[in-house]
Design brief:
41% helix; 211 residues; five-stranded mixed β-sheet; 5 strands; alpha/beta; Nucleotidyltransferase, domain 5; globular
Length: 211
């Protein structure tokens, strides 16, 4: 695990060069660990060092329009991109950490071009990786590959939340993306949980038990 005290303002390609051959290192990140609803989504990206889109950064530092504009640029220019969604049922069975690591491992192993090293945002290296992995705390602020993966995961999950919102319009999911906002908690109190809520998360667990 790598810990950096002072992350740079924008990520660069130095970790890819330090730990492996550029073009053979994938960045891995997730979106959706905290929400009460929907999947946790992990992405793995191998950037082409000769064709890196401008403006890559931690998805949390970018607005929705910028993330959505970067998404196709990453997909079109990257050497390989893979995305895996762990549904609420798997989150409830494995817990959120276990489901996140499962999705990360599956994304790395599903890349169309095999990675020689995975740089993973966070504290944990998933088991079952087809290549060595390094956990990088604050990696989405340090590595362009991880930043690209964070954008792919976030935009994918947000799109999935919009689909869920169309099927269950009473919760405001397209707006809050499943997070525990006042609006979301009020809808839960009034209508109960829908099939996309995580039954192991509070307050859904109490609602399920009460019903």
């Amino acid at each position: 695990m790598e810990l950096f005290d002072s992350p740079p303002n924008i990520p660069d390609f130095s970790l890819e060069r330090r730990y492996g051959e550029p073009g053979a290192v994938c960045g891995v990140d997730e979106a959706g660990r905290g929400p009460l609803l929907g999947p946790v989504v992990a992405a793995a990206v191998i950037l082409d060092p000769r064709a890196i889109p401008d403006g890559l950064n931690d998805s949390k530092k970018l607005d929705a329009a910028t993330r959505e504009a970067l998404f196709p640029l990453i997909v079109d220019s990257a050497l390989a991109v893979s995305v895996t969604a762990a549904p609420p049922a798997l989150i409830d069975r494995l817990n959120i950490r276990g489901a996140t690591l499962w999705a990360m491992s599956r994304s790395v192993n599903s890349l169309s071009r095999a990675a020689r090293l995975a740089l993973i945002d966070g504290r944990d290296v998933p088991s079952g990786l087809a290549c060595p992995g390094r956990a990088i705390i604050g990696g989405d602020a340090r590595s362009l590959s991880i930043a690209a993966a964070s954008i792919i995961a976030k935009v994918t999950r947000d799109s999935m939340c919009e689909v869920i919102d169309n099927a269950f319009p009473g919760y405001g999911i397209a707006k809050h993306k499943g997070y525990a906002t006042v609006e979301h908690l009020a809808a839960l109190a009034a209508s109960g949980a829908c099939p996309h809520h995580r039954s192991s998360f509070e307050p859904i667990a109490r609602l399920v038990t009460a019903s």
